[in-house]
Amino acid sequence: MADSGDGVNSTSSGKDGRNAVTDGPVTDPASCIKESKSGALKKSSRYRSRSLSASSTDSYSSGSSSDEDDVSPREKIQKTDKGFNDFCVRNINQHAFGRREIEIAEQEMPGIMALRKRAADDKPLKNAKIVGCTHINAQTAVLIETLVELGAQVRWAACNIYSTQNEVAAALAHAGYPIFAWRGETEEDFWWCIDKCVAAENWQPNMILDDGGDATHLMLKKYNTMFKMIQGIVEESVTGVHRLYQLSKAGKLSVPAMNVNDSVTKTKFDNLYSCRESIIDSLKRSTDVMFGGKQVVICGYGEVGKGCCQALKGLGCIVYITEIDPICALQASMDGFRVMKLNEVIRNVDIVITATGNKNVVTREHMDKMKNGCVVCNMGHSNTEIDINSLRTPDLTWEKVRSQVDHVIWPDGKRIVLLAEGRLVNLSCSSIPSFVVSITAATQALALIELFNAPPGRYKSDVYLLPKKMDEYVASLHLPTFDAHLTELTDEQAKYMGLNKAGPFKPNYYRY
Ligand SMILES: NC(=O)c1ccc[n+]([C@@H]2O[C@H](COP(=O)([O-])OP(=O)(O)OC[C@H]3O[C@@H](n4cnc5c(N)ncnc54)[C@H](O)[C@@H]3O)[C@@H](O)[C@H]2O)c1
């Protein structure tokens, strides 16, 4: 998850709200699904040849055999021992491994587990029918099972073709949840899976939990009548939120939406702290690189960029920043980083990381100038930050060296090390800290509860931020883990500050 992931889509959902294809033919969801119905389940050999077997990044339980990779889950007939078959996952038999992964995640997700316990009797999501489109991993599984515990019915697809933990998807399906996701989906599979979650027999969804806006996009485009029955959308990613604001501006948003991405608890913790930990892990796991003394350029000094910089600086890297915004550039300078144009450093750096949420930040021209062995990866939501398409030319050779690691080789023998084909590297090549996801998951659950239970008129067809008090509540759910003791305001202090003793403690414009 994480924008949690903030996640990438299999398609490159650009900030302009349109989908561009990076590695496949079409990405208009409607046309893609039509194709899939008539052209029926044709496997993409291109994708299979870059399949995800035997990888250093797969957990031993999820390592898919080449045998599995050859058969599309859509061609398999699978059911659980209870006869349930409303799902499509790589291999239902992996469910026991997945269940263990979920149990491990539960240990590190105290906030969402506390919420589950506190609200289980009230069932605040009774009658909620949620279409979910997020990363599917152990941590999101904890969220999904919490929503069900709180009374919701769910149907769930992945928002990223690479990030699904197959064994976790199997565990969820085995528990009886309609899950449509596997690692290594094609573009066509991707839209097919979301479609299966939106349109099903005896199913009229009334809530959407989205990460990247693809479920919203598909419903709006293909199932407009159903879309009008939606009571609320909760969106996690920068990109998805951007699309929602665009829809709202164009007068096309007919339901209230909650922008979870800009909740303080999400932005500060998921984007900053999670990326600070997972950037190192994903680079290590995929390349075995030594960081000390390496020159790294990070494009974008927002929350994600700041997290990456802190981690890499801590390990002795020489870090350069590129920025378009003078405020962030000044922050970077004051934090001790050199702010440069990409062209000025590109020939010397060992690692290039994009974290802008923008497109074509690293172009073919830049990659032509990189030195031999330069590692190139993306931490931003969309796979458009690095112009991967420009590398698919006859003069360059692609060599898969590991799952999620390609060497792209120039005619003179120079090679760059491209990670996850420009998709979110931390979600594709490593895992993200469960504790941080607990914060995001609790925020998402509260946003769903708020939108679902709000009295008519509280929210119009617009994009809202989670009320500050709920942000504070999410944080407070996580404090017991650290045995953190909050100071309470005295009556005198509360009066002096003009605050309610129970919060909110800061005005909405406070930046933390
Ligand atoms: N990998 C993850 O786990 C994860 C987690 C959260 C968010 N994200 C994604 O990471 C991206 C960044 O998120 P954020 O919270 O840091 O956003 P942000 O808006 O805080 O930061 C992005 C920064 O990039 C700068 N920028 C934009 N275009 C640029 C360009 N061409 N060159 C250089 N700098 C440029 C902006 O000025 C901004 O400061 C988003 O796409 C977000 O969805 C990823």
TrEMBL record:
Residues 271-432 form the S-adenosyl-L-homocysteine hydrolase NAD binding domain. It comes from the Eukaryota. GO terms for molecular function: adenosylhomocysteinase activity. GO terms for cellular component: cytosol. Keywords: Hydrolase, NAD, One-carbon metabolism. It catalyses: S-adenosyl-L-homocysteine + H2O = L-homocysteine + adenosine. Belongs to the adenosylhomocysteinase family. This is Adenosylhomocysteinase. It comes from Cephus cinctus (Wheat stem sawfly). The gene is LOC107267390.
